[in-house]
Amino acid sequence: MKIDQEKLEPLKIKYQQISFCLTERSKRLWGASEALAWGKGGVTAVQKATGISRPTIYVGIKELRVERTLAGEKVRKTGGGAKRLTFKDGSLLTDLDNLVEPTAKGDPESPLRWTCKSVRTLTEELGKNHKVSFRSTGTLLAQLGYSLQLNKKTKEKESSPHRNAQFIHINNKIKCFHGLLLPTISVDTKKKELIGEYKNNGREYCKKGEPTEVNTHDFPDKENGKVAPYGVYDIGKNKGWVSVGVCNDTAEFAVNAIRSWWYEMGEKEYAEASDLLITADCGGSNGYRVKLWKWELQKLADELELTIHVCHFPPGTSKWNKIEHKMFSYISQNWRGKPLITKEAVVQLIAHTKTKKGLEICSKLDERVYDTGKKISKAEMKSINLKKDTLHGDWNYMIRPRKDGEVKSRKV
After folding, report:
1. How far apart are CA 293 and CA 314, in angstroms?
2. Strand partners, 185
3. Which domain holds residue 90?
4. Strand partners, 105
5. Which of 136, 349, 350, 390 maximizes the CB count within 10 A of its CB?
6. 9 and 116, same structural domain?
7. Mean pLDDT per 10-residue run, the chain (412 residues)?
8. Helix 54-66 and helix 42-50: axis angle, to 10°?
9. 254: CATH
10. DSSP E strands: which ranges in 226-290?
11. pTM of the predicted model, to two decimals?
């Protein structure tokens, strides 16, 4: 049946004016009402003017004629609309679960045992027996309780039975030193950094579309190399020192950083001090098993005429060391997104790191060459004036000066 297009225009305009607020239900009822008002050929007219399908209009007419209404805010009767994939394909959900779960459990027979389990990969595997899109696969995964997850560092190696006792010991030791106004420092080496136009993690404000350009690859520059920042954090004063080494991270370098801190900062703050407490990790250049570390501390004790107390954190607990979250974390925030172009730039970025709680850091480049593989003889080890604590003497010990005019240590 031919209908004059001019007659359809008012109907078309009317629909365009109200279509934005029509629900599925109100749209079919409106279309049905207009079709009935039009008379013969009304369904065709409404369909051509609005685009509402003929079956939808007929459903609306049926609802109007039987005066049937839907409860509440429903727009279609129960069971209406497209059927869910899981309704039409009863094994789909089970097959998807079986496809993902054995892979997580390490089943060697799983077809995706050695494959990245992306949504598209799972869809491709499901496609062998089911008709499903990758978007539907994502919805089904959520329905099964799966989501994208990062690896989470929660598992620790078997901890020492003295772990808790060691933490209590370190805490009590620090309190005792603070009560006597004696220096307590936390020491560690920060991650080595490449010097040059290399990407540094983090973001910094730049003109839109004009990011700082850096090298594509992170191959070390033979001329600039890397730097190893060794930090000393004064727990009581919230001040820090960082020696930026250009050579090897050795025990000799570590102790020299402590020496630099004392002459540049510590001596001014603790002029009358007789003892110094160092808290450190149990590994690395300041590890409790490193003979050179103890030998160099003995030389430092002789030089400064201080009794040096050392407490090592138990294995696997390095992140509890104060310097990690009181100083190093803020240094990383301060230089985020900034390429470390030169060694001097590293020193400046470290020295300008501040916090709202008053953290102050001094930094200096240490260009000395520290050889690796230095051996300490048994005779030299015996000459170290070392006394172990009663609690885990490997982790807790003090080194006294060996000079004739030895300064008497307070009872700490």
Report:
1. 17
2. 234, 278
3. 85-143
4. none
5. 350
6. no
7. 80 89 89 90 90 91 75 60 74 82 54 67 85 89 83 69 89 95 96 87 78 79 88 95 93 96 95 95 93 96 96 89 92 88 92 92 94 93 94 94 59 53
8. 130
9. 3.30.420
10. 226-234, 239-245, 275-280
11. 0.66
